[in-house]
Design brief:
The complex is a heterodimer of chains A (464) and B (102). With 464 residues, chain A is an alpha/beta fold. Chain A has 20 helices and 22 strands. In chain A, the strands form 6 sheets. In chain A, strands 1, 2, 3, 4, 5, 6 and 20 form a 7-stranded mixed sheet that branches. Chain A has a 5-stranded parallel sheet with strand order 8-16-10-11-12. Classes of the chains: A alpha/beta (464), B mainly beta (102). Strand 9 of chain A pairs antiparallel with strand 1 (7-9) of chain B, so a sheet runs across the interface.
Chain lengths: 464, 102
């Protein structure tokens, strides 16, 4: 079996930056990624797509090509199409690729698994045609597939980014149904000082809003009672805004109210997580280099708390410096010298975050959904079911599985875990930290018997 | 462009022939299969084993498992594979709840 100084999981900004930096410092690095080409979700398929529609996607996207270039240097082995399903102590990483299982071992692990859309359980959110806003962006980026008549619902900067890109592509959204209120903006003002230091992001936001307004996209703010109507597919979005009930016919709905760390791999290794009130999600316990409380397991990028692609690349480089120092490839003073510049840049990147988190809080009715709303998409468990389990004495997310299987379908709780924690916390009058989260175990992704059966062969081959 | 689809395609690339539940479709070669099916007018990719509810792609990044389809007897995420000539795609014929693909 191949042994590497470092195995990086995820070829997004954090993973790519870390792999290149570590290899530059003399480490042997393998980077495993599920997608056919590097980039992660923010820079998805950037090497192929930048030429095709870089004008629509903007330089914040095409800049990713600088990071993918780093994977082509000596010392980096990039294994694409690799679906990691186990990371075990020691460290042994198991993955499937082209229908075969394979394994690789490493002295240190960097988890750069990024973020997932925050689950947004609203009535009708499981209907075909209702997608995460990030999915809408992926359709545009990777495939050049545009929704002709989409409603964007929720809150946050990503909603404006995708709307602006749709305007540029010639298919402006039918409407934006935004959940944030004027009161949220007033609360956010106290973070304005930091926001001014991160003025580049604010300026970008204002430019996007101007593009959306110029295209005459209707915007409805302070929206409540949001639901998607339809029998076999989405047919309309209904909501109330400023006292008026509205119904907008559409076949596509893009939902978004923030993204949250993808914690599956780290949790399976026993990394501890704590509730972050500002971001309304669990974040892993890591030191300033991204090392977790499980020695030699590092986490970088949005997986440690959402800060965006530029911050993720900086965090990847910081982790790589510490990993190289731990592997005796870099002196501690030299590590600190190189890190100082990165930390200064990081501080600028993070400056606007508290303002954005306060101005665009999660949608309240998706955090505490109505009783008949499905919250576990896989097993079709409703919010009312979870509340009922809580009243029967169910105190923890793992126990809910015995009551009604939430989190036990193929997505393994990725799109219901935070909702289950929130519902149990609310019904039992406990904090999210007291309630905790699902226990995550391998396989992290479904693996077939055929892939397992092919494991020994492929492992022998890779050792040749 | 398929007028029945709520999506339109920007790229003009060579096509491959596939079938979805018996219907013949022409998709861009090498395209993300879930994206290509959406653009071809397919919206219901499967019905859930629990209630039979219709589902289609939701996350497009391999995390939600809502775009599951069956190809050559294997249930796969459409958003994680590419469109190639001759794919015979059907809605997954899973057994009822209890036969967990995870």
């Amino acid at each position: 079996m191949t042994r590497r100084d470092l195995v990086v999981i995820g070829a997004g900004p954090a993973g790519m930056a870390a792999a290149a930096t570590a290899a530059e410092l003399g480490l042997s690095v393998t980077i495993l990624d599920e997608q056919p080409r590097a980039g992660g979700q923010i820079y998805r398929d950037v090497d192929r797509v930048a030429m095709l529609r870089g004008d629509i996607l903007g330089t914040d996207y095409t800049d990713g090509a600088r990071l993918t270039a780093g994977l082509r240097r000596d010392g980096v082995e990039h294994i694409s199409g690799a679906v990691v399903w186990a990371v075990e102590e020691g460290f042994r990483v198991s993955y499937s690729r082209n229908g075969r299982g394979a394994q690789i071992t490493a002295d240190r692990i960097l988890l750069a698994t990024g973020a997932l859309e925050r689950p947004m359980p609203l009535p009708g959110w499981t209907l075909p045609g209702v997608m995460a806003a990030g999915a809408g962006q992926i359709l545009l980026k990777q495939s050049g597939v545009l929704a002709r008549n989409a409603v964007l619902a929720g809150s946050g900067p990503l909603l404006y980014l995708i709307a602006a890109q749709m305007v540029r592509a010639g298919t402006p959204p039918a409407a934006m149904v935004e959940t944030q209120t004027r009161a949220d903006m007033i609360r956010a003002i106290r973070h304005a000082g930091g926001a001014l230091r991160g003025w580049r992001y604010l300026l970008k936001g204002l430019k996007m809003l101007a593009e959306i307004t110029r295209a005459r996209v209707p915007r409805f703010t302070g929206a409540t009672n949001i639901a998607i109507e339809g029998a076999q597919r989405a047919e309309a979005v209904t909501f109330t805004s400023h006292g008026r009930s509205r119904r907008i016919p559409c076949q596509t709905v893009f939902l978004h109210h923030g993204v949250v760390p993808n914690a599956q791999a780290a949790r399976s290794l026993g990394v501890s997580y704590a509730w972050n009130t500002a971001q309304a999600c669990f974040v892993p316990t890591v030191d300033p280099w991204g090392e977790s409380d499980v020695p030699d397991v590092f986490i970088a990028g949005d997986g440690t708390g959402v800060a965006g692609a530029k911050a993720a690349a900086l965090a990847g480089r910081l982790a790589a410096l510490r990993i190289a120092e731990a592997a005796d490839r870099l002196s501690a003073p030299e590590r600190d010298r190189q890190a100082a510049k990165l930390r200064a840049a990081m501080s600028t990147e993070l400056a606007a975050r508290p303002f954005l988190d306060a101005a665009y809080p999660p949608c309240a009715e998706a955090i505490a959904p109505a009783d008949d709303t499905v919250i576990c998409r896989c097993e079709e468990v409703t919010a009312g079911d979870i509340r009922r389990y809580a009243k029967l004495g169910c105190v923890g997310p793992n126990q809910t599985k015995a009551f009604g299987r939430p989190g036990m379908g193929p997505c393994q709780g990725r799109y219901c875990g935070l909702t289950v924690t929130a519902l149990l916390a609310d019904t039992n009058a406990r904090t999210p930290d007291e309630i905790g989260y699902y226990r995550i175990r391998p396989p992290l992704k479904p693996v077939t018997l055929g892939e397992l059966a092919a494991l020994d062969d492929s492992t022998l081959n890779s050792a040749k | 462009m398929n007028p029945a689809s709520p999506f339109l395609e920007m790229d003009d690339v060579p096509r491959v022939q596939v079938s979805f539940d018996g219907a013949r479709l022409s998709l861009p070669e090498g395209a993300n299969l879930a994206a290509a099916l959406l653009a071809a007018g397919v919206d219901v990719f499967r019905n859930t084993p629990v209630s039979g509810a219709p589902r289609g792609p939701f996350c497009m990044m391999g995390a939600c498992f809502d775009c599951l389809v069956e190809i050559d007897g294997v249930i796969r995420q459409a958003c994680m594979i590419e469109a190639t000539e001759g794919l015979q795609i059907v809605k997954p014929h899973e057994a009822k709840a209890g036969n967990d693909p995870a």
